[in-house]
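Late entry, written up from scratch paper. The run itself happened at the end of the previous shift, but nothing got recorded in the book at the time, so transcribing now.
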Amino acid sequence: MSTKVQLSLVFTGILVVSCALVLFIVWAFLIRYIPNEAMYTWDGNNFVPTRRDVLREFVPRVTVAVAVLVGIGLLVAWFASFRLLAPLSNMKTVAEQVRGGDLSRRVNLTGSENEMTVLADSFDTMLDRLESLLHSQQAFVANASHELRTPLAATRALLENAKSADAGADPDLIDKLTGVNERAIALVDALLLLHEVEFTEIERRVSDLSLVVEESVEELIPLASKRGVEVRLDVDSVMVLASEPLVHQLVSNLVQNAIVHNVAVGGVLDVTLTREADSAVLVVENTGAELDAEFVAQTRELFVRRGERVRAQGSDHAGLGLGLAIAERIAASQEAHLDLRPRAGGGLRAVVTFAVVDQLA
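Output as recorded:
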């Protein structure tokens, strides 16, 4: 039995019960008090009808009236249920079209705000999210496939060269093979981390953010020293609710990006952590080439690498194009906000804002 039929029967049943209740009230408080014997006036004429006379005239007409009311009520209930459930029918149609692969379909229910419009808007929002995720997944798979193909193809070419009689045990060739292999491993690790961040529920706990930041920066001091980048660290103790491993990766990505994409000589990296009201503000900024806002916005995308960014002391660090993209997704998973913008005078300024918790859990 369809929902329209069920609603129609319910509305009609309510009408029938209401009519029966009214008739019972008429009987209980009016008709039953009419005497069965005829009453006469002083001249002997019949003055008041008996109960039998009233029922004989009343019952047939009431029966017809109730039957007409029930019929009209059933008809009105059917059209009313059809009208009320029309948005659900539209959502069903859209759902079937989406199931067929057309994710661009939407309900777009208009009218005053009620339960149906709220449900339709939520349904459309869900479809927007699904379409965005699907397009993101498709782009991710395509880019990942391309990026993985490159080091594997290079490894195959180097291996074929190594097999040749003229190559021998060339140390440079071995170094190149090792570099390509390490880059492929790093890429796979980055892709696995990205998948974990986006599709896995991460446990968070109250932690001192300053300790995580200090540890992340200290691990990258050797890289900064090798590239001649001065690291200046100034952090305050701030408690946040976060996953320490992911926040460690977030800070490491930002710091490593700031070290690699710095000026060739005399580069500086500033890392500060302060509390502002109910927020913990982590700032990572470096000297470097002049950047425009359009390019900075593109760095949030996966596999973005552009030659305009200067790499300190050579180009031995090709990068994967995933560092800032992963950092942004980690920030979102920790309910934090990552803001990237060009630094005045050249370089990049990254600001991560966390919500502060005042007590240890």
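The longest helix spans residues 51-99.
(Scratch paper discarded after transcription.)
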